[in-house]
Amino acid sequence: MADRIDSAARSRTMAAIRSKNTRPEKWVRSALHHQGFRFRLHNKKLPGSPDLVLKKYHAVIFINGCFWHQHEGCAAAHLPKTHTDFWQDKFARNVARDQKVLYQLKTLGWRAAIVWECGLKKKCREATLQHLQAWLSGSTEYFEMPVFDEFSCL
C-alpha cells in the first residue's frame, strides 16, 4: 500500500511532533503545580530524561504518547499500514528503551510513574490526575494508569 502523502510532506509532519512541552505534559504539570507539587523538567542526569522529576518524593513521571510508546490495549497504539517492518522495529526499540530506563531508575532508588496520553482525554483527565496525586503522596514504587475504554475512566 502506497503512502497517501509524498515524502517531503511526511518529513515536515514528523518533524513537527514534539517530544517536550506537549499538551498532555502541560496538563499534568499545571494540575500538579496547582496542588502544590514542585518539580523539575526533563532532567538529563537521570536515565530517560523524565518529563517531571519530584525530588522531594523521589519520584519521576513520564507522560507517554500511546502511539509512539505502544500503550498495550490502547486503540491509539496501532501499527501503520505502510512500511510495517520499519514501524515494528521502531516501536520495539522504543518499548525496550522504556523498560531499560524504568529498570535503571528503580536501581537508582527512584519511583516511576507513566501517564498515558489516552488517560488525559477530557472525560478521564480528572480521574487520572487524582490517581497520580495520590500515588505521589503514597509510597508505591511504580504507577501506570490503566487503559481507559470509551465508557468509563476507572
Key words describing this protein structure:
4 helices, disordered C terminus, 5 strands, globular, 154 residues, alpha/beta, 13% strand, single chain, Endonuclease, Chain A
Overview of the molecule:
It is built from four helices and five strands, in the order ααβββαβαβ. With about 150 residues, it is α/β, with parallel strands linked by helices. It has one domain (about 20-145): Endonuclease, Chain A, CATH 3.40.960.10. Strands 1-2-3-4-5 form a five-stranded mixed sheet, sandwiched between helices. The chain starts with 6 loop residues before the first helix and ends in a 10-residue tail after the last strand. The model is unreliable at about 145-154 (pLDDT under 50).
* CATH secondary-structure class: Alpha Beta
Sketch the topology as an H/E string, one letter per element.
HHEEEHEHE
| The named CATH superfamily | VSR Endonuclease
**Widest β-sheet, arrangement of strands:** 1-2-3-4-5
Number of helices: 4
Helix content: 25-40%
| Proportion of strand residues | 5-15%
- What is Rg? 17 Å
Category from helices, strands and their pairing: alpha/beta
Sheet with most strands: 5 strands, mixed
Unreliable stretches: 147-154
- The oligomerization state is single chain
- Rounded mean pLDDT is 85
CATH fold title: Endonuclease, Chain A
Total of domains:
1
Identify the overall geometry.
globular
CATH architecture: 3-Layer(aba) Sandwich
Count of strand segments:
5
User: Terminal Cα separation, in Å?
Assistant: 38 Å
TL;DR?
The protein is built from four helices and five strands, in the order H-H-E-E-E-H-E-H-E. It has 154 residues and is an alpha/beta fold. Strands 1-2-3-4-5 form a five-stranded mixed beta sheet, sandwiched between helices.
